[in-house]
């Protein structure tokens, strides 16, 4: 650098050394000096992105890495770095897209498949995440962490049988793998809860068909609830969850309010509303949602409402009920 202070190659090498030595702030001026000479050099933009990322200046890092991949779209490393910067910014769909571009260059990278799966999970795309874990497992079937991560994704999808199989395989690879052991317990709990919910659904369907609330005997003989879980199904259907307006998105709040208005016409007070009346007022709802609606009616009745609501509350109520603004 002393003989040729503007040599972009020497500047890049020195900057790369500084980044590796955890001195990214010192590296950036050198990169910028090199870019002043070679503004279309993709590796310089990638290095600038890496330095900014080390400084947790992730938005600027994305900008630099976007420039890098536009100049060199076949550079999987730059796409991977861009994906990480998006993850740190909470931009998970963009991160998944970046990892996908990296995979188009290096499809045999197990790590890239798992990174893409993570980004998809954080964006709520659980099914595509499972497919990515399957790709990673095909490349390395003895990685317990990937099997465990797949199990957790299946758990989120309520695919409890499949989740148990994934956790079992992870435990087979490492009998002391705590994540898999806990995941399997959660999956078994979820599977049992799903069986109870399925039985509750049959009870609600029986009640709708027969026009009355089912007793224990009718649940057992009429709805086919197994005797060994009859008490659990009775308990599940007898106690509604606590649901308040603030817990619900606007579309669900609107639907619950519509059902509430029908149910409340059948009774003298909200406390007299029961599961059966809710079920016949919401014919398209399953047992779980019937319980939620029932809990909503019961709990809203207990809420003290200010007779002069503030502007924010008034706006929420009008949005829920599709009322025009005054």
What keyword list fits this structure?
326 residues; 17 helices; elongated
Explain how this protein is built:
With 326 residues, the protein is an all-alpha fold. Helix content is 71%, strand content 0%. It has 17 helices and no strands. Helix 1 packs parallel to helix 3 and helix 6 packs antiparallel against helix 7. The longest helix has 33 residues. It is elongated. About 2% of the residues have low confidence.
Instruction: State the order of secondary-structure elements, H for helix, E for strand.
Output: HHHHHHHHHHHHHHHHH
Oligomer state of the chains in this structure = single chain
Helical content, roughly? over 70%
Mean pLDDT comes to: 89
- What class, by secondary structure content? mainly alpha
Number of strands: 0
The N- to C-terminal Cα distance equals: 70 Å
Give the strand content.
Answer: under 5%
Number of helices: 17
- Radius of gyration in whole Å, from Cα? 29 Å
Unreliable stretches (pLDDT < 50, length at least 5) are: 304-309
Main sheet record: none
- Estimate the global geometry from the Cα principal axes: elongated
Summarize the structure.
The N and C termini lie far apart (70 Å).
Mind sketching the topology for me?
Elements (H helix, E strand, L loop, with lengths): L7 H13 L3 H14 L4 H13 L3 H14 L4 H13 L3 H14 L4 H13 L3 H14 L4 H13 L3 H14 L4 H33 L5 H7 L7 H9 L11 H15 L10 H7 L5 H14 L10 H11 L5
């Amino acid at each position: 650098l002393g003989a040729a202070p503007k040599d972009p190659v020497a500047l890049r090498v020195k900057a790369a050394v500084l980044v590796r030595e955890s001195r990214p702030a010192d590296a950036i001026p050198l990169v910028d000096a090199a870019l002043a000479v070679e503004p279309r050099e993709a590796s310089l933009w990638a290095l600038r992105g890496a330095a900014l990322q080390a400084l947790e200046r992730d938005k600027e890092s994305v900008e630099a890495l976007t420039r890098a991949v536009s100049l060199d779209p076949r550079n999987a490393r730059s796409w991977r770095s861009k994906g990480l910067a998006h993850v740190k910014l909470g931009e998970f769909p963009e991160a998944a897209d970046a990892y996908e571009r990296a995979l188009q260059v290096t499809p045999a990278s197990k790590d890239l498949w798992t990174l893409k799966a993570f980004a998809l999970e954080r964006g709520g795309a659980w099914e595509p995440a499972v497919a990515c874990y399957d790709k990673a497992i095909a490349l390395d079937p003895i990685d317990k962490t990937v099997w465990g991560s797949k199990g957790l994704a299946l758990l989120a999808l309520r695919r409890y049988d499949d989740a148990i199989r994934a956790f079992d395989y992870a435990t087979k690879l490492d009998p002391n793998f705590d994540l898999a052991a806990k995941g399997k317990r959660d999956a078994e709990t979820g599977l049992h809860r799903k069986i109870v919910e399925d039985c509750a659904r049959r009870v609600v369907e029986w009640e709708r068909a027969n026009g009355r609330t089912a007793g224990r005997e009718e649940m057992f003989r009429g709805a086919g609830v197994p005797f060994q879980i009859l008490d659990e199904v009775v308990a599940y259907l007898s106690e509604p969850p606590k649901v308040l307006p603030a817990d619900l998105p606007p579309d669900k709040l609107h639907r619950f309010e519509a059902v509430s208005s029908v149910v409340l016409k059948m009774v003298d007070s909200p406390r007299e509303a029961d599961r059966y009346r809710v079920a016949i007022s919401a014919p398209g709802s399953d047992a779980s949602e019937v319980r939620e609606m029932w809990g909503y009616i019961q709990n809203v009745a207990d809420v003290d409402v200010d007779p002069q609501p503030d502007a924010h509350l008034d706006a929420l109520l009008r949005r829920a009920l599709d009322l025009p603004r005054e």
